[in-house]
Amino acid sequence: MQLWRVGCGLCTCLWPVLAETREYLANSWSTSFYRPHDVQIRHVGLVNEETVYFATASGVSMLRDGLLTPAVELHDAELTAFHLCHHRSSIFYETLSKDGGVLTVHEYSLLAKESVKVAIFQETVPAKALACVDHLLLRASRANLVAVSLTHDAPITLLQKFKEAEDFYGSLAVAFPADSVHEAQIFGVVPRNRTVVRVKLQQDSANLHLSGIDELLTAGEGADGLLETASVLEPRFVAWLHGKLLFVDHCSLRQVVDGRVSTLLGTPGDCAEGNETLQPAFWASKITAPLGLAAESEATAGHTSLLLTAKQVIEVTQEEDACAESSRAECVKAAAGCGWAEGDRSSQRRCFSCKRLQRWADAQRPTVEPCSLEAAQGPARYDLVGCGCAPPKPPAAKDDSAAGVVRVMVFLGCLGAAAYWYRQRQLQRRDDFVMPAGAQFHTFSDGEGYVRYDSEPFS
Questions:
Q1: Which of 8, 209, 295, 388 is most buried when burial is the number of CB atoms within 10 A of its CB?
Q2: pLDDT 10s digits, 354-372
Q3: Which residues, in sequence order, are CB contacts of 167 under 8 Å at separation 6+?
């Protein structure tokens, strides 16, 4: 049996378990932040909600008030990697010359508005991830992991050389990057064995080296819960946000905080096939496979991250909600100022503030009328009486199209069978009354006796 058939069978069997091991974060909201037109965004960087940077193959632009302003423009090279370094207020980006022979890492100062060269690599293996820590820039490619010193005339340090082409780090994130190498926590994604790891660096008197790699999350079905039992399905990117490790897992955004894993958006293994869907109900949201992840600076007070997909940039925020802990009975009261959403499973429940719902609806592209959610058909049912909407109507008896087709087919089948029976009956009756050739008829009468007819008596 082919492996993909086995995998599909396992996913089908495990799906009920996965649905019950999903823990959605009660204070998370996802909105459409930006939809690009005639441009393919490759990377995204976030300072705060007002200052966002997008990178394409031809340069870097800043988004402000809905308008893109060029910051870095490339004419003789292609941008291959990008990283926004918060504690240095700069952008690191790597370019590949058009002749394909030289890779160059640049640092663009957000304050001075100018770029300087940081390192040159005489190779053709572009970086898969960049991350700054203290006075170093970590660069991961399919070939190796190196540390580039940002002080003048310092050599490049080889930290790890990958034996297999798939052993590379697909993404890097640093917690407390302004601290020393000893204090900073470095996280990475290893696509080959589908793990999220913690990388430890050690700075001796003169040498910087890799001191250890710990597996934080291992491959599995993508379950939430305690860190010891949680797993990842297909990790792609990592980012650090105010004490939380965010990571993209297939078609979802999840996080690790205080030894527990939860989901902010989407579901691992359940991707949008067409248009993406964002709803207040977490379980009803579906996205395509993300292409990038960015978190805002540690110096900000918010809890915002940006998720880049092929269709749009999604803003994911976390904020306190007084309605979050309310039961359904408390939530749906008209005076509560809260709205309610629920699904078919016990884990699919959410109470939220009506004011926050209105902000979410206004931020959608296009905007959404909150009360229209009550009439929407899908995996989430809404009760928004507390938000000024009319009480939801009881669901009308749905005309199951499949059942309707079956009924029509049964009727037509019965009609055809009846027509066939009637036709056969008519043929049988005709055969019963048609006389065969050479038939002889014999009659008897009281007066004349026996009479023989060699043909039909009525011809």
A1: 295
A2: 999 999 999 887 888 999 9
A3: 190, 192
pLDDT in tens, 50-67: 899 999 999 999 998 778
| Nearest CA among 106, 113, 99 for reference residue 127 | 106
Would you say how long the chain is, in residues? 459
CA of 278: how far to CAs of 191, 249, 415, in Å?
A: 27, 17, 48
Residue 223 in contact with residue 214, Cβ under 8 Å? no
**Amino acid sitting at position 34:** Y
C-alpha 11/C-alpha 5 separation (Å) is 10
DSSP-derived 3-state class of residue 148: strand
- Averaged pLDDT, 307-317: 95
DSSP-derived 3-state class of residue 383: strand
The tokens of 332 are what?
């749906």
Concatenated DSSP letters of 404-450: HHHHHHHHHHHHHHHHHHHHHHHHHHHHHHSPPTT--EEEEETTTEE
Give the tens place of pLDDT for each residue, 136-150: 999 999 999 999 999
* Strand, coil or helix: 8: helix
